[in-house]
Write a sequence for this structure.
């Protein structure tokens, strides 16, 4: 189920090594996974801005069509920590990146990725798009971890 509000889970991302991919699971770990996983978004980096023709980008994220983060004003090269769990469950989820502009229907699409919340590990989702002739690039770091407790 989707969670728009911040919730507390018995999950400490600092315990997970960035490169760890959880390829080998113990029986106990596998049992935990049957209870579902959590999708934790670590940070987003504006590798290349360009969604806004006048200044900084104002990116925001939709999870399965619902806004879960942002917008936040971002400069090129800037990284913003998110550090929040937004989903628990499993299966493939759709994540879209948009750029906010004032006025109705003016926002710009900056790409989408599909995240399989059945696959444990720490990964980077790469959003790439062309907005008004400008290339945009955003990298989103996320962790899929077993839900505990
Ligand atoms: Ca824009
Ligand atoms: Ca904008």
């Amino acid at each position: 189920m989707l969670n728009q509000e911040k919730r507390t889970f018995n999950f400490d991302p600092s315990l997970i090594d960035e490169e760890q991919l959880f390829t080998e699971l113990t029986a106990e770990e596998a049992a935990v996974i049957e209870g579902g996983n959590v999708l934790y978004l670590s940070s987003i980096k504006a590798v290349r801005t360009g969604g806004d023709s006048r200044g900084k980008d104002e990116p925001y994220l939709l999870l399965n069509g619902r806004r879960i983060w942002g917008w936040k004003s971002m400069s090129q090269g800037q990284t913003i920590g998110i550090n929040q769990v937004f989903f628990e469950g499993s299966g493939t989820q759709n994540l879209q990146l948009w750029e906010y502009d004032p006025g109705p229907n003016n926002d710009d699409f900056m790409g989408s990725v599909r995240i399989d919340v059945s696959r444990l590990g720490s990964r980077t989702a790469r959003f790439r798009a062309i907005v008004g002739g400008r290339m945009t690039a955003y990298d989103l770091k996320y962790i899929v971890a077993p839900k505990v407790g």
In short: The beta strands are 37-48, 59-63, 66-70, 79-89, 92-99, 108-116, 121-131, 134-146. The chain has one helix and eight strands. The first strand starts at residue 37 and ends at 48. The two ends are 17 Å apart (CA to CA).
